[in-house]
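Example 3.2
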Amino acid sequence: MSAAEPTQGANSAPSGGCEAAEPRARGGHTSAIDPPSSGTFAPDGNAWRFEGALTFDDAAPVFATSAAVALPAEGIDFSGMTRADSSALAVVIALRRRAAAEGRTLPLRNLPPSLRSLAVVYGVEELIA
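Structure, written as tokens:
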């Protein structure tokens, strides 16, 4: 499964402390400029930055936005990321694969420990190292 095509399986909604976001239409057109619902993704020039959460609901719009612009020469800064799930890991791996296909490197800065832990659990830590 690619990060651009997340599917909803047996995942349950988060519980406790999180307010529900407005529902997004599923299966409809998502343009490259649709912002993530719970975080901010800023693909700006030579460096990109993630702020807030990058979860299942945000993965497809973030991936679509990133596909519409050139990869950043200076990499991606995750210092503002407050929450990540396996969808975030899928986006990061897809971006790394895109960079490799383009013959480039993609530096990842300030990856949160939770994202690194997920990579270890899934056995893909070398893809984000």
